[in-house]
Amino acid sequence: MTASECSASGYNFAYLDEQTKRMIRRGLLKAVAIPGYQVPFGGREMPMPYGWGTGGMQLTASVLGQDDVLKVIDQGADDTTNAVSIRAFFERVAGVTTTTATGEADVIQTRHRVPEQPLRQGQLLIFQVPIPEPLRFIEPSEEETRLMHALEEYGVMHVKLYEDIARHGHIATTYAYPVKVDGRYVTDPSPIPKFDNPKLHMNEALMLFGAGREKRLYAIPPYTRVESLDFEDHPFEVQQWDAPCAICGARDTFLDEVITDDRGGRMFVCSDTDYCQSRTEEVA
Amino acid sequence: MRWNAFDTPVHDSQRVYRQLLSAMAEPGTFAEVGGAPLPPSGAAIGTACWATLLTLCDLDTRVWLAPELDAAGINEALAFHTGARQAERPDEADFALVTPATLAGQGEAEPPAFQEGSDTYPDRSTTLVVMLDRLDTAGPWALSGPGIPGQRRLGVGQGGEALMTRLAANRARFPRGLDAILTCGTRLAAVPRSTRITRSASEEVDTCMSP
User: Fold this and answer.
1) Which residues of B116-129 are buried (b: 16+ CB within 10 A; e: fewer)?
2) Beta strand pairing status for A39-40 and A216-220?
3) DSSP symbols for B166-177
4) Calpha distance A62→B68 (Å, rounded)
5) Of B2, B90, B94, B107, which shows the fewest CB atoms inside 10 Å?
6) How far is the C-alpha of A20 from the C-alpha of A1, rounded, in Å?
């Protein structure tokens, strides 16, 4: 291996060995063929702890090519610890170009957000997933949940949403809001805010999901029906804010609450830093 | 008979894999496999088919080969380059190399029964790698479903009836089923089990004829 192929010598391109990549690649093809179904895979140890995005990283490492441009976001931001570390990791072990611009990226690894800017055909969005099984909090047994998926036995999921309504008067689930993919598998969209759920429906990009600790991967192909579970009299709704983004003035984005002092001062700003910044530059 | 592997296995297989992934994610779209080794003369498979095997097979996979494609020492070449094992029976195969004629069944013989997975583990199923004499949009087959905005057309050439009928049957057994990677010369496409297949009159032409 020459230095130009891999900037950190001693590692294969993109860290994982070829055998592991092939195993994950075969799994991803099955995941795409059965949208929303969780494919077990032999998760490897990555040089960081579970819960930091090892699943997403293994998927990224398996699909990434030397000509790809990579973007990594954490809760929408390009400049938080998790995003910076993972981006630096792939710069070192794969020597790929990285970017913060959503439109320029070929592969986007994300923790808990879908970018505000619509994705285009050919882009790959790779989600980091903590708990891939949407039924897990209702049924702790893997054998049982697997059977429930096989039998399309999803009544309990609606019971859970109903309990929300009985207790709070509305569906109080705000993130990791369960979806049904192509009318068949109930799937956890990872802990994205439910604000992002509508973006999954008929998205032009291929969306891949990797859970490192649970060793599961799944996919939502482009142009695929994705419905958020709801009731006729309690239809699915997304979050809304009273004020626009304090920086760029956007009214149609997901806002983070930022505490500004210890006297209760706070502001609401876009969680997607790239989108916010590009809007600010447009105005200026 | 000399079967060549990729020049730079890491990057070449990654490139072919991304083409396969896009093909599977967007059924009915085509990719031209470039920079992949040409199988030797006398081989019954084309460049895209060989590149697919080099990309996906290793010592964890079992490959079943249709008798009509067993030529020019492909079994030995596959074992040498990838370490893949031969599947004794079609239902043991992770990958099956077939032609439409294989799926039609020859003479009295029943067509081979591949692994469709189970309702709990539908991913444990055979992926067909199909050798075609034509692969284009000029066919009577209309594809719809995940990965397809509206509808896409597909033509698969001679004997396509048996292939597409078999793939159309996937729908009734979903999530069990067979996924197919279609190859013709350097061109590849895919039809996963999630695709709905219907027959209609043919229109468009964008032909790839294998030599």
Assistant:
1) bbebeebbebbbbb
2) antiparallel
3) HHHTHHHHTTS-
4) 34
5) B107
6) 19
What phi and psi values does residue A107 have, to the nearest 5 degrees?
-125, 130
Q: Is A248 tagged catalytic?
A: yes
Does A51 qualify as catalytic in the annotation? no
Euclidean distance between CA atoms A102 and A109, whole angstroms: 11
Average of pLDDT values for A138-166? 96
Q: What is the pTM of this model?
A: 0.95
* A26 with B18: Cβ contact below 8 A: no
Specify whether A6 is catalytic: no
Q: Which two tokens stand for residue A86?
A: 């993972």
Residues 77-106 of B with CB under 8 A from A: 94
Tens-place pLDDT, residues A185-194: 999 999 999 9
**Which of the residues A43, A210, A245, A249 is marked catalytic?**
A245
Q: Does B120 touch chain A (CB under 8 A)?
A: yes
* Minimal Cβ distance to B120: which of A19, A150, A206: A150
Query: Residue A4: pLDDT above 50?
Result: no
Tally Cβ neighbours within 10 Å of residue B43.
19
Topology (CATH level 3) of domain B9-102+117-199: Rossmann fold (3.40.50)
Residue A227: both structure tokens together: 């419905």
Question: With contacts defined as CB-CB under 8 Å, which chain B residues touch A37?
Answer: 122-123, 175
- Which residues of A are less than 8 Å from B24 in CB distance? 29, 32-33
Task: Report the 10 Å Cβ neighbour count for B67.
Answer: 8
Query: CA-CA-CA-CA torsion for A116, A118, A123, A127, nearest 10 degrees?
Result: 40
* Cβ neighbour number for residue B75 with a 10 Å cutoff: 14
This model of the complex carries an ipTM of 0.95
Q: Show Cβ contacts of residue A39 under 8 Å, excluding neighbours closer than 6 positions.
A: A27, A28, A30, A31, A216, A217, A218, B123
- Chain A contact for B9 (CB, 8 A cutoff): yes
- Shortest CB distance from B175 goes to which of A37, A222, A224? A37
pLDDT values of chain B reduced to their tens digit, one per residue, 211 residues: 799 999 999 999 999 999 999 999 999 999 999 989 999 999 999 999 999 999 999 999 999 999 999 999 999 999 999 999 999 999 999 999 999 999 998 777 789 999 999 999 999 999 999 999 999 998 899 999 999 999 999 999 888 999 999 999 999 999 999 999 999 999 999 999 999 999 986 554 455 555 4
Q: Where are the domains of chain B?
A: 9-102+117-199
- Number of CB pairs, chain A paired with chain B, less than 8 A apart: 114
Task: Give which of B35, B45, B81, B97 is closest to A67, Cα–Cα.
Answer: B35
Does residue A43 contact residue A58 with C-beta atoms inside 8 Å?
Answer: yes
